[in-house]
Design goal:
With 358 residues, the chain is of the alpha/beta class. 36% of the residues lie in helices and 20% in strands.
Length: 358
């Protein structure tokens, strides 16, 4: 089967959507299918090197326009012959490319999230209308998405998956060191890292690694100094995707303190769980609550609840046996529900169904 994936970015650009696209593309290639990924590349992106099994066409972006990229060659690059076209939302450039493309190939759309602005919704609505199937990674996506209203009859749930083997090689934290928490993600307001820093001030023996960059970094560093926790916090900045397991190896547990449903799933939770680390999440009513099972794979606290977050971090920091139990449960949950193999097989079954004669 020939599958054309219309994505926004691709490896080595690191992010939740990029990990999904790469895992699916490589999983399909391993099963003998021909995959072409069309993605945007921009000045300052890391060099891709040779680490890829799927064919990737990269359209050069002249500049970002809001949350989108000005990459006119993407339109032409998307005119590849395909048995199935797989479009990843939100990405208005791919929507336009599909709308201009004369093709009878069936369309599958994965709705990672809604568009942040109404100005992009018309081409996105057209793609959703034309799609044979729309995929979301959790049932919460169906309930939360405004754009899927009216299309519920063709929505299917296929959980995101990761290459758990890559994370199972992560060793346990070095013995004898002070307990260490880790946050991995883009530094945006909705990620809630300011609440994490305030909670850290209540747990004096805990260290924290913050991996990622974004518009909030300077404010968060200022806040850490004001809270007198800067000596216990390490801001690592953007980290190469292939080196993230090295950072996870130093951590005892991961914290995802998100404060809005912009955190729709949390791929980093799967990676931490596969590495045998318990996780702390907030009760945002999104797919996050379908990944972490409170009391089993980690702990859950209220949104913006600084003291509750501090109590949860202290609980894990002081109880290595609880960390071990929850870490093992997290590994088992990823293996059971969230592997890239399971995701790939589910998408293959869907591709076959949308290609079947009506």
């Amino acid at each position: 089967m020939r599958i054309l994936q219309l994505a926004k970015y691709y490896w080595p650009r690191s992010g939740g959507m990029e990990r999904v696209v790469q895992g699916l593309a490589e999983g399909l290639v391993e099963r003998g299918h021909e995959v072409e990924v069309v993605a945007v590349t921009a000045f300052g992106d890391p060099r891709p090197g040779q680490k890829r099994r799927a064919a990737v066409t990269r359209a050069w972006s002249f500049a970002p326009v809001g949350t989108q990229e000005l990459a006119p060659t993407y339109i032409a690059a998307a005119w590849r012959r395909a048995d199935v076209i797989h479009l990843h939302h939100p990405h208005s450039l791919a929507d336009v490319a599909y709308a201009l493309r004369p093709s009878l190939a069936p369309l599958v759309v994965t709705q990672h999230a809604d568009y942040p602005s109404a100005k992009y919704k018309i081409p996105g609505w057209y793609a959703l209308k034309r799609a044979e199937a729309i995929v979301v990674p959790s049932s919460a996506h169906i309930a939360l998405s405004r754009e899927l209203k009216g299309f519920e009859n063709k929505v299917e749930v296929i959980p995101f998956g990761i290459d758990q083997g890559r994370w199972e090689l992560v060793p346990p934290p070095p013995p004898g060191n002070p307990p260490r928490a880790i946050f991995i993600g883009r530094l945006e307001r909705w990620k809630g890292v300011d609440f994490l820093l305030r909670a850290l001030a209540e747990v004096p023996d805990l260290r924290l690694d913050v991996v990622g960059t974004g518009p909030e970094r300077h404010r968060l560093e200022t806040l850490a100094r004001a809270l007198a926790v800067m000596d216990r916090v390490k801001f690592w900045g953007e980290y190469p995707d292939e080196d993230l397991p090295r950072r996870m190896a130093d951590a005892d547990f991961l914290v995802l303190p998100s404060v809005t449903v912009d955190e729709m799933f949390g791929m980093v939770l799967l990676e931490a769980m596969a590495a045998g680390r318990p996780v702390i999440t907030t009760d945002v009513p999104s797919g996050v609550r379908e990944v972490n099972v409170p009391g089993v794979t980690g702990l859950e606290v209220g949104i913006r609840n600084v003291h509750g977050l501090a109590v949860a971090m202290r609980t894990l920091a002081e109880d290595p046996f609880l960390r071990t139990r929850m870490g093992l449960a997290g590994k088992a949950r990823v293996q059971e529900r969230f592997t890239v193999d399971r995701m790939t097989e589910a998408y293959l079954d869907l591709y076959r169904r949308v290609r079947a004669p009506k």
